[in-house]
């Protein structure tokens, strides 16, 4: 779609449009370990905002009776090495855990599309003005100006925002449908000639070297070296540090302590800073290319069973894991096949991402 024309938008002071909600935890003796979950369940079904980058600002879920809640709000993250200044629309019933807050329009609206529109504009207005060392607290954010479409009488044009975002969503759905059709044209990978390998025959596994500092001291908004943490997002990188890298590039990492440890297998193509509970998979004989490593991480994720905080995925589990890989006639892994296959997949993915980019432009 064509770029939006902002030439006639009007500046509004954020404080004039929004109020900050004072939402707390109702449960006495609240215990994070026992009273929230990283997985949404029948018991833990209330989204909670906190210092989370991505996933619409939601990392944990709580019990509905334990938290004060609100609907049709916007979430602003006030803290975090990466997340500070993130803004997310929260149309559903939502509570507050920590390091974030919910704001609500003073005007009454019922459209999720309006929330999505305003959240995007708000983030552009505030994100670059805050950092880990300069928290995005409401007292500061509320004094900033944001530009929005306006009616002839100078009020926010919510009808325009609603229609614009509906058009964006329709184009996004059309693009996603094109991707689904492209996926249907793929043929399944032929694995009848693959061989079984024990992970310990291919890799040594041991914890990455870590400084064992609290995040406040380890992470730096202006840091240059990636810190790989216990996460299943952003290639495991949870922030950046000015401490020297502790690990060399060319290995696969995973965590043994997250609820979704199976999602944490990542290839690290740059030197990085290690972190407690992050395990490194060090190739024994064959130095991995990026394509080979991405192929193997995909196989690992599909081969590992289910683990959570109670049933932790240990390095012993992975060392003893049996995986299947393409093989040569002599029984060695077919690294050339893995390289070629993943290169083709990356080329195809690049085409699909360009299709999505057209919707956003």
Can you characterise this structure?
The chain is an alpha+beta fold. It is 30% helix and 21% strand. It has 10 helices and 18 strands. A 4-stranded antiparallel β-sheet has the order 2-9-6-7. The chain has a 4-stranded mixed β-sheet with strand order 3-5-4-8. A hairpin with an 8-residue loop joins strand 4 and strand 5. Helix 3 (112-126) crosses helix 5 (158-184), helix 5 packs antiparallel against helix 10 (335-360) and helix 8 packs across helix 10. The N and C termini lie close together (7 Å). The model is unreliable at 355-361 (pLDDT under 50).
List the helices and strands and how they pair.
Layout lengths: L9 E4 H4 E3 L11 H4 E2 L8 E4 L8 E5 L10 E5 L9 E4 L4 E2 L3 E6 L6 H15 L11 H4 L3 E4 L9 H27 L10 E4 H4 E5 L7 H4 L6 E4 L8 E5 L9 E5 L10 E3 L9 E6 L6 H14 L11 H5 L2 E4 L9 H26 L1
Parallel strand pairs: 4-8
Antiparallel strand pairs: 1-10, 2-9, 3-5, 4-5, 6-7, 6-9, 11-18, 12-17, 13-14, 15-16, 15-17
Helix pairs in contact: 3-5, 5-10, 8-10
Class by SSE composition: alpha+beta
Summarize model confidence as the mean pLDDT.
85
How big a fraction of the residues is strand? Answer: 15-25%
Helix percentage: 25-40%
Main beta-sheet annotation: 4 strands, antiparallel
H/E element sequence: EHEHEEEEEEEHHEHEHEHEEEEEHHEH
Structure characteristics:
single chain, 361 residues, alpha+beta, four-stranded antiparallel β-sheet, four-stranded mixed β-sheet, 10 helices, 18 strands, 21% strand, elongated, disordered C terminus
